[in-house]
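Q: What structure does this chain adopt?
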Amino acid sequence: MRISGFLTVALIPAFLLAGGAVKDFSQQVPKQVRDWKASGPDAVYDRKTLFDYMDGGAEVYLAYAFREVFVRKYADADGNELVLDIYDMGSPAEAFGMFSVDRQDPDAGIGQGSEYGLGLLRFWRGRYFVSVTVSGNEEKAELAVLELGKAVAPLVGPDGAPPDMLELLPAAGQQAEKTAYFHSPIHLANRYYVASENILNLDATTDCLFAEYRAEGAGTARLLVVRYPDPAKAGAAAASFRKSFLPRADADGAALTESQAWSLIRTRGRVLAAVFEASSKEYAGRLAEAVLREPQ
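A:
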C-alpha cells in the first residue's frame, strides 16, 4: 500500500462528527460500496485537531490553507479496510497544490486531476482534495476504491481554477505531472533539496511552483518560481540564495556546479526564478527569462 504523500494515518479512536461544511458529507457519501460497508463513526478534524488523526503528516496540510477533513472508514467481511478522506483546502488553488506535491501514479480520470496506484486513489476538484486508502487486500479493493471516488467527485464540485501563476511556466518541455504548487519550505524539501535552512524565506505569504523540464533538443532542468508579496522580499531572498547556494555565480546569476550542471537565479518585480541542474547555461537562462517576461 502506498500511503498518500508524506503521512501515515494513525489508527486511533475517531472524534465524534463535528465541524463545518465537511460534516454534511456524512449524509451524502455512500455508506456502502460493493462489499465494503461504513464502519465506526464518521469524524471531522480541523487545523487544531489534525495532529490527533495523523502521525507526523499534519504539517504538509497545515502548510496550505487547510480547513477541515471528513473521514469515513469502510470494512468488508474479511477485515479489509478503506479510508476516505475529504479535505477542505480552502480554495481550488490550494486543493490543486495538495494534489500536485505527490503525483507519481497513472491518471484515474476522476475530478479535475487524479491518480491511482495500488492501494491509493488521490484526486482534487474545486476546493477539495480527496484520498481513498486501502488497508488489506489491495487488488480486491481496486474496483471499490475507484467506484467510491467516482461517487464522491460530484459531491465536491463545481470545478475550480488552478493557481493563476501556472501561466508563468514556459510550456515547451514542461513535465506537467511533475509540477507542484506550494508555499512552505517543507514542500520544497520534498521536491528538491536546496539547503537545511530556509534560505529563500518561504512562508505562508509566498506562492511557489516547482517544475521539471525535458525539452527535445534543448536540454533538461528543474525550475523553481516564487512569487513574493513585494519586490523587496524577492530581492532579499535572491541575495540570501546567492550567498548560500551560488557564492560563485557570475554576472548573469549563473554558476556551474560540482555535478557539471548549471544553476541560476534571477528576479523581476516580486517574482524569483531559480534554475537547477540545467544541461547548459543558455537553457537555464531561457527558462528564467520566459518566467520573468512580464513584471508581476
